[in-house]
Amino acid sequence: MKAILLTSLFFISLTSFAKTGEGEGIEFFHGTFKQALAKAKKENKLIFFDAYTSWCGPCKVLKTKVFPDKELGEYMNAKFISIGVDMEAGEGPQLANMYPVEGYPTLMFMDAAGKVKKKVLGLPRGGAKELLTVAKTVK
């Protein structure tokens, strides 16, 4: 019985891995906001800033249903340094003073100096396609 259960779990995990695939979706930078700005400047890219909280339901939908989209990821990874920040932890409260948000999630598109070019409040109703359309308007 244990062998069957372990085998089933193994195949489920393989299926899950194959479904998401490596390199699909938005790849988020793991570092500070200041480091993300420096990387964007060095690579001549813009910043995509996901301001979220741990308790926010729509934020979780973005992470599980929108950000993993392959087409969105290909575009965003080529044009943006993406960073997600919990606005209630770590450097989040300090960044909330610099970039006040009216609700969560707030998605900001910025230049490499940190100037906000476009802001999206809430979960885009059109999902990944809508977010991609917005991202393509940011110069």
TrEMBL record:
Residue span, Thioredoxin domain: 3-139
Gene3D superfamilies linked to this entry: Glutaredoxin
InterPro entries: AGR/TXD (IPR051099), Ssp411-like_TRX (IPR004879), Thioredoxin-like_sf (IPR036249), Thioredoxin_domain (IPR013766)
Signal peptide: 1-18
Keyword Signal in annotation: yes
Keywords, ordered alphabetically: Signal
Pfam families assigned to the protein according to its UniProt record, in alphabetical order: Thioredox_DsbH (PF03190)
PANTHER family: ANTERIOR GRADIENT PROTEIN-RELATED, THIOREDOXIN DOMAIN-CONTAINING PROTEIN
Designated name of the protein: DUF255 domain-containing protein
